[in-house]
Design a protein that fits this description.
Length: 355
């Protein structure tokens, strides 16, 4: 693939449905910081359009679908903050689980209409791992190896991933654009000096000092910071960006989709617990250039919806091309599908007929 993805891929409902299974399901997603789930605690989150429940017992982190296997009622309330917990008790029929997901008791166990064994009714679990102070959950049953997905981060910043960090600030807002437009924009090093002259450009410095690195699964823009150090901006699939400062600060930016032409911008700020930093001022600085980007991506959505063909890539847009190549590979998009929207819809119909 020598050029950008065709614009119609950003407005195709068939592509959006395929992304959920072939793209989202192949990857790992950061859904919380590690320190939000201390020993003996639970935390409720929503991801992949599923209610999730994180727990930690005896040092082992687990992720379950937050629903009782009996009638599907949540075991912990949506939006609930991290809290200490010894047992998960369904408010509907009292089925009781430990934090390992094992059924410990069910009301009137001897009166079920068929044979009943507790071990047959564990909570449904998802794979989860911890890296860089974040909790990553697999989107499907056969994901990439997490270390493969983070190959460039491990190669370029492994020493920073073991630093202790606490969550300082979290911000979320809707964007009126397809998630790929927002993700492309945050990988776009061509626009920074032009669109962010008094914000992000001052952080990253002159374009002539940019260092770009591409790997099989990730991209990196490294720019000078302080005395012979670098500020690192990693682009990761599916829609994630990891920013690392040498002073232990870390920012996570994500653009999970909420509709075909809508996504949500999520920003987390983390740092070493001992770092003396004004988290509000830091978030204000982040929001300044992200608000500039909001206007750009929402304007680009109008252009992409108008049926235009993207122009030629610039060398400073190499990170976009690399992530789009990965996207095509994981989506298993053929050359015919990339050049013919009808082929995608025929492919979707063929998949349905084989299911």
């Amino acid at each position: 693939m020598e050029g950008f993805l065709p614009a119609w891929l950003y407005s195709s409902s068939a592509i959006a449905a395929r992304e959920q299974s072939s793209y989202v399901g192949r990857l790992w997603h950061p859904i919380a910081s590690s320190e939000e789930v201390p020993e003996g605690h639970i935390l409720v989150r929503e991801q992949f359009k599923l209610p999730l429940l994180l727990s930690r017992r005896n040092g082992l982190l687990r992720c379950f679908i937050n629903r009782c296997p009996h009638r599907g009622v949540p075991l912990a309330q949506p939006g609930e903050q991290s809290r200490a917990c010894k047992r998960l008790i369904c408010p509907y029929h009292g089925w009781t689980y430990d934090l390992e997901g094992n059924l410990k008791a069910a009301a009137r166990e001897g009166e079920f209409l068929s044979s009943f064994n507790r071990q047959d009714w564990p909570l449904t679990s998802l794979e989860c791992q911890e890296r860089a102070g974040l909790i990553w959950v697999a989107g499907g049953s056969n994901p990439l190896l997490l270390d493969d997905q983070l190959d460039l981060v491990l190669a370029e910043a492994a020493h920073q991933l073991t630093q202790p960090r606490r969550l300082l600030h979290r911000f979320s807002r809707p964007l009126a654009c397809n998630w790929k437009i927002a993700h492309d924009n945050t990988l776009d090093d061509y626009h920074v000096a032009i669109a962010h002259p008094t914000t992000l450009h001052r952080e990253q410095g002159p374009v002539r000092h940019y260092r770009t690195v591409l790997s099989e699964h990730g991209t990196l823009l490294a720019t000078p910071w302080g005395d012979q150090q670098e500020f690192l901006t990693f682009g990761l699939a599916p829609w994630t960006h990891l920013l690392l400062w040498p002073d232990s600060r870390m920012a996570l930016i994500q653009f999970p989709p909420t509709a075909l032409d809508r996504c949500r911008m999520e920003v987390w700020l983390l740092a070493d617990p001992g770092l003396d930093i004004d988290a509000d001022a830091w978030m204000e600085a982040m929001q300044a250039f992200l608000e500039e980007d909001r206007h750009l991506v929402e304007a680009a959505q109008l252009g992409y919806a108008s049926g235009f063909s993207p122009g030629p890539p610039h060398r400073l847009e190499a990170r976009i091309l690399q992530q789009q190549r990965l996207y095509c590979r994981l989506m298993e998009l053929t050359a015919a599908e990339l050049t013919d929207e009808t082929a995608v819809h025929l492919g979707a119909a063929n998949r349905l007929s084989h299911d």
